[in-house]
Each structure stands twice: as structure tokens, then as C-alpha cells.
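Worked example 3. Consider a protein that binds adenosine-5'-diphosphate.
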Amino acid sequence: MKKVRFEKKKYTYLDSLKISIISSPVCTILYLILSLAVAILPTYQVIINARFIDNALGLIDGSATKRAVYISLAIVIGIIAYQWVVGPIKAYLANKIEMDMRVSLKGAYVEKCSKIEFKYIENTDSMDLMNRVADTMEHKFIDGFTNVVNLISLFMTIAGLLIVLITQIAWVALIIIAVAVPLLYLSFISGKATYEANKEITKYQRKYKYLTTVMTGRENVDERTVFGYNEKLNDKWFEQYEISRKMETRTRAKWFVKLKSGSMITAFLCTFIAAMLINPVATGIITIGMFFSLINATFDLVHTMSWSLTRLIEAVSTHIEYLKEITKFAAFEQYDNADAVPEGGIEFKSLEFRNVTFKYPGTETYILKDMNMKIEAGRHYAFVGANGAGKSTIAKLLTGLYQDYEGRILINGRDLREYTAAQLKAFYSVVYQDFARYSISIWDNIAIGCVGGADDEAISNAITALKLDSVIEGLEDGKDTLLGKLAQEGKDLSGGEWQRIALARCFVSEAPIRVLDEPTAALDPIAESNLYSEFAKLCEGRTTLFFSHRLGSVKLADYIYVIDNGHVEEQGTHSELMAAKQLYYTMYDSQRRWYQ
Ligand code: ADP
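Given these inputs, the predicted complex is written out as C-alpha cells:
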């Protein structure tokens, strides 16, 4: 079966239809048939109603038979019954299509998110756009689809009714068209405005919804109790909620005014037209049956045009604005083969930065300037520097997360940009400062470190190496106990235990380079130092890169790079750097008491 995918192109209404067909082909086609079949009924109804009334009147003067009245009555009732039945069936189908779309759109969204370049993830504007696009996505698409189908069906109905009117009394049709066209244009414009207003409202909604999670969620319960910040956050919540509420009230008020003025126009037009039809009926241009039927149809038509049609057009134009955002999201650049699985058995010899200069996309400050360094296989390296010196930026660059740098990054003498995503992934196993704590079992938390699937022995070794045996013994279901706060029975671990799990995940990976980007920043300096040296011992013979602003933890490294002012300020072994009595020495001296 074809899959829904977000591809770089301009998204139009046709895509909403396509997505619907791909997600739920049978229901979509049934929905289309039912909608279009019901569209011509009102036109037929005018003629049938007129015939029924004329036949009924004909009974009085004997010009019609009872049989003719019964037949036309049966047809009238048949049409009404059909319309009643079609409504709920269409609602059921729309519901089913929405459920099917949820599955396919969620898959497409997750796939796109997993491939897009890292710069979008770190940028608030693009993250905002992604959140907006993802919010009730299937609902927006099904709305877009049903609205446009209903719009087409409505146009068919209107066209049919106008044709009947034109054949009977042309000028009535002309008046309706003359009034309706500007009304429709206005609703199109107002649809755009509504979307913009809603966009603004969601910004504030997101803020207050986030604060609600902070104030009521399980995640922050400990800090909330200790700091007692609820009152302060409550004020903030109220502030954001009020802004969003006022905006929403304003948008609704506009809606209300539009609704009321629409009904007034309807009432006025209908009365006017009814009055104008009296003369043609008196002079016998139209029959009494046609008179009543036409008045009925005109009421329906004007009401439909001033209310249902304007509402639909507004909804359609809102969906067009949504599709513009989908187009922007789909155009986010992505890594080629980002979902490729790392290639096993990749060999690493060296990694080199040659005059690497870098600033984050959309910013003006250079974080790295002419940075040079070299890493050789099998050795332990440390990158040290103050907070904000650019250590994590180096980690992001060497793993290929940002590739718009100047200068060259060479892996095994070959440009980093020449490697496929799968190859780059295969080189590294990384533990970040804000490493993930997955609410799955401790065993699975470690196993996912190896994409190809770590064997049980490797996982058991990692557990022993990182001293997690005693942790597992203390858990009710041992290695299968669910961790974290998500599950009812979930067991939460200490910060240090989570760090060991993250390190074990890195340890089971077959990648030749292990990168630790301050995952132990939350530990005290001595504990961090111990954990780093423990891990270094475990990684004997492997290439490891430690990033830290605390020097005590890195002195065992084979080679140390001191980062300052966006480049390598000093380099050497711990004893060489201490002997040089420069920046490293000063930093070390000022941190000395941390380790006493
Ligand atoms: P370190 O790891 O040494 O503490 P970082 O590499 O995290 O330092 O940050 C270096 C500088 O880059 C900081 O000034 C930080 O504000 C900036 N920075 C980090 N990430 C981004 C980003 N995604 N966009 C813009 N600036 C960033």
C-alpha cells in the first residue's frame, strides 16, 4: 500500500484528497459518491414539491387524480428520508477516514521529524511551526477534505437551484447572485484572518498548557514541593490564559456579528423575493405549486449562500493557510537516508578539525574560529573549557549534526560531508548532558544503544561493568522492571543510576568512538571524576572523547584540548599543561578545592 509522506512541494487541496484516498480509500470514495449524489436532490425536490402542491390543489377542481397525489407525495417523502439517512452515514464515514488518517499522518510526521536537519530542532520558530502543524493534524485534514467535498456538493446544489429559478423567473436568480458574490469574497478573506488569529492564540495556549503540566504533572513533583513555586506559576498561567481568552473572545465576537448579519440579509432577501413572486403567480406565469416550491427553495438557497456557503468558504480558506504551513514544514531540509541504520564494523583511524569556523544558523556570533585539533584512534581525549566555550558545539559538529561550517572536518582523512548518514552514525556513540531516561525496562534502556541489536552477553557485561547489578537486584521484577514515572508501577532511579544506564547504553554500542558530553554534570566533581576514570578504564583501547568544564575528571586523558575564544588555546597532557602554567593551570588551581 502507498504511504503518506511529507515531500518538498506545494501542498494544495488535491493533496488533502490524495492523503484521504491513500489513508482510507473505500470510505473516501463512498463519501464522495454520497456527497455528490445528494447534491442534485434539492433541484429535483423543487420540481417534485411544485408538482405535489399542484396535484393536491388539482384534487379540488378535479384536474388531478388521487393516485397522482400519492405518487408525488411518496417521492417527496422518499427524498427527505434519503437525505436523513445520508447525513449520519457521511458522519460515520468521516469519522472512519479521520481515524485512518491519524495512523498514516502520524507515521508521515514522525518520519519527517526523524530526518530533518538538526538546525530546525534547535530553532524555536521551526519548532513552533512543527507543533502547530502536528496539533490535531488528522482533524485538520479531514476537515479540509470534507469541507471541500461539501463545498463542491453545495455549488452543485446552488447551480441546480439557480437553473430552476432562471428557467422560471430569471431576475430572482440574478439578484441572488449579485448579493452572494461579494458575501462569498468577504468570507474567504475572513477565513484567512481567522487562521491568523488562531495562530496567535495557539502561541499563548501552548505557554499556559506547558505551565499546567509543570504545575500538575508527575515529572516536576519534587521540585514543586520543595520550591513551592505554584503560586508564582499560577500568576504566570493566568496571565497567558487571559491573553489567549481575550483573543478568542474577540475572534468569536467577530463570528457572531457575521452570523447575525448573514441571517438579517437572508430574511430581507427572502421577504423581498416572495413579494416579487406574487405578481407572476397572479398573472399565471408560474403555478401556485411552483410559487410555494420556489419560495421554499429561495429561502433555502439564500440561507445556504449567506450562511453554510460562507462558513464553508471560510473553513476552506483556513485550510489553505494550514496547507501553506504544511508546505513550509515539508520543505525543511533533511539528511539523506537519515533513517539509515548505522553500518556495522566501520574502522576509525583519525578525526581532524582544520580551521573550522562556525556560527549557528540564523545567528551572527562565531562560536568556533579557526579551530584545529586531531584525534587518533584508541586514545582518550578531553575537551575542557568554561561553560559556553563551545564544547558541545564541537561535539555536534564532529558527529555531523551541523554541516554548514567553514574549514574542514576530516574523518580517516576524508571530508565528513562525503560520508553517508549511516556511516557517520556508525562512528559514534554519544551520551549527552541531557541524556534520555526512557520509561522502559532497564534492560531495554541499555539494549537500544546498539541499533543492530546487542546480544544478551554484551548487555550483561555492560550491566556488570557499570555496576548496575546491585540496582537490578533491588528492583521488584529485576531487569524487566519498568523505569520512570510514566507507568503506575514504574520505579524511578537516582540521578547517578540513570547516568550509569546512559553510559551502559553507550558502552554496548559497537561504534569505535565514544563521546561523553558532560553527562555527569549533575554529579559532584569527585563523583564525576571517579565515573570518568572508571569509564575510561572500561574503554581501554577504544577512542573516547570527554567534554567537561571540570578539570579533575579529565586529568587521566591521554591528551587534553583547552577550548577558549572559539579555538584550541592550549593542548597537551595533564602534566605538560600544568607545567606550562597557563590557562589550564589557572583553571585547575581555581578548581583544586572541589577535589579536596
Ligand atoms: P559548552 O558546551 O562549552 O558549555 P556550547 O557549545 O553549548 O558550550 O555553547 C557555545 C555557545 O553557543 C553558547 O554561547 C551558546 O549560547 C551558543 N549556542 C549553543 N547552541 C546554540 C544554538 N542552537 N543556537 C544558537 N546558539 C547556540
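Take a moment to read the result before moving on. Strands lie at 350-358, 368-376, 380-384, 406-411, 414-415, 428-431, 513-517, 543-548, 559-564, 567-572. The chain has a mean pLDDT of 84.
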